[in-house]
Amino acid sequence: MSELLQPLEPLIQALRRLPGVGVKTAQRMAFHMLQRDQEGARQLARALVTAVDSVRHCEKCNTFTHETVCSICRDEGRDAARLCVVETPADLAAMERTGAYRGYYFVLMGRLSPMDGVGPKDIGLPELLVRTQEPALQEVILATSFTAEGEATAHAITELLQGRSIEVTRLARGVPVGSELEYVDLGTIAHALVDRR
Amino acid sequence: MSELLQPLEPLIQALRRLPGVGVKTAQRMAFHMLQRDQEGARQLARALVTAVDSVRHCEKCNTFTHETVCSICRDEGRDAARLCVVETPADLAAMERTGAYRGYYFVLMGRLSPMDGVGPKDIGLPELLVRTQEPALQEVILATSFTAEGEATAHAITELLQGRSIEVTRLARGVPVGSELEYVDLGTIAHALVDRR
Ligand SMILES: [Zn+2]
Ligand SMILES: [Zn+2]
């Protein structure tokens, strides 16, 4: 980093902590926010602090919420026999949009990725183990991504639940291999749900 | 935006004000910062506010600085006969790294772009007109990008300075057409500087 860019360096370094942002992108972002959108910069600063301070995890399903227990987990009209395990709140939202599922969820907030230092505890597997002890539960549907890491995560959860009287199923391979659930069209997800194995 | 992602929506919307960040990227950034790097989120918030509050423009050359006049403009050992006009502080830094230039600078902080609503006042052309009234000045070297917008900007400055006893030159076309200065190798920039026309 040149001395000539030094006034912006703290901001450039901070922007690089965003995923997928390298030094050139961070420079361009810093220039833009300072030069053309200072109100946007202040808004982003406020939104970051508010989010970190006020967004919490649902005590039952682990998704982001402002409350102790999220609206889906509070919905008593759902099928308590089924629990669908997804990687992110966006995956949960995609599953809901299919209209083909009426059970509850558990959101891992990630997937196993030893290379990135993401282990079983980072994706809430201890909490999932607790959650699956509810007596009404009969089936855990694994809806992790069909990527190497998503499959490894599904495999780890299958092992975790072995020996329990719970059926562990996986979304059918109607979901294109190599893709992430949130980008898949709804019909494909719905079909994969019906064909779960 | 699904109601299920609502707790993150203010942050996602704020992240979208960063250049080149669409809704999917903003979602991924929001998840990452909340789930894996809350300290990074707080650091980014602080850096944004500090930058907006403390970074100002050099009164002489318009680059970003913490002071009234930047270190280059305060350097009295430079050639006051020459003023190099660049688009960004990163371009200024690239020019300095060549070691081939010892004059002063004017930083436009952008380039003319009517489509994006960037006009002559947004890139400091009134201030440039003032800056070029210094008696010692003999030559203005246009080092804007060799893109359509950079060429239009160079053209506008040439027109602006017409009828004054100042030579207006342009970096030679040794700089590959269609590229932005800050990404060009130093030898090419140095060569283009010598061959300026
Ligand atoms: Zn919940
Ligand atoms: Zn200056």
Automatic annotation (TrEMBL), chains A, B:
One of its GO terms (molecular function) is zinc ion binding. CDD domains: TOPRIM_recR. PROSITE patterns: RECR (PS01300), TOPRIM (PS50880). Residues 81-176 form the Toprim domain. Transmembrane segments: none annotated. A zinc finger (C4-type) spans 58-73. It holds the Pfam family RecR_C. Keywords: DNA damage, DNA recombination, DNA repair, Metal-binding, Zinc, Zinc-finger. InterPro entries: DNA_Rcmb_RecR (IPR000093), Rcmb_RecR (IPR023627), Rcmb_RecR_Znf (IPR015967), TOPRIM_dom (IPR006171), TOPRIM_RecR (IPR034137). GO terms for biological process: DNA recombination; DNA repair. Belongs to the RecR family. PANTHER family: RECOMBINATION PROTEIN RECR (PTHR30446:SF0). HAMAP family: RecR. May play a role in DNA repair. It seems to be involved in an RecBC-independent recombinational process of DNA repair. It may act with RecF and RecO. This is Recombination protein RecR. The lineage of its organism: Bacteria, Pseudomonadati, Pseudomonadota, Betaproteobacteria, Burkholderiales.
